[in-house]
């Protein structure tokens, strides 16, 4: 294509970054996860307003482009959110939103909470519902032994307790 017909960045218009990929998984969220998404949207809106109010933002529009891209992502996640309230009468099995205490083959007890994708944080033992560990635990009952497929091999976990926040 002739160079005369292409638009180059001239620094006068803010750049638009490509959108972040949206997961193909259903966007189930806990009440806490929904609140976190809303708080993140509010924070991003404030950051965008601050950047736009700064007269020098055109000199470096990248921070604004990042904040706008992130806000588009969070708004899409909010629009597709499926709120899953904790059950009033907890079922006797593991389901979305459950905190599950397990013991492994070495006798080490750990608790995991099954949450939505945006709320997951493995370091805090918040695991996404479609993760291998959550899938292994789903529908398990206290006393059940489940097999968790890990790259290092199968790990057997015994379910000790199931609880729901709320």
UniProtKB/TrEMBL annotation:
Task: Decide whether keyword Ion transport is in the record.
Answer: no
* Biological processes annotated in GO: DNA-templated transcription elongation; regulation of DNA-templated transcription elongation
Tagged with keyword Coiled coil: yes
Q: Which superkingdom heads the taxonomic lineage of this protein's source?
A: Bacteria
Full protein name: Transcription elongation factor, GreA/GreB family
Identify the stretch(es) annotated as Disordered. Answer: 1-30
**Compositional bias of kind Basic and acidic residues:** 1-10
Q: Which residues form the signal peptide?
A: none
Q: Which residues does the UniProt record annotate as the domain Transcription elongation factor GreA/GreB C-terminal?
A: 91-163
Annotated coiled-coil segments of the chain: 34-61
UniProt entry keywords in alphabetical sequence: Coiled coil, Elongation factor, Protein biosynthesis
Against Pfam families, the record matches this protein to: GreA_GreB
GO MF entries: DNA binding; RNA polymerase binding; translation elongation factor activity
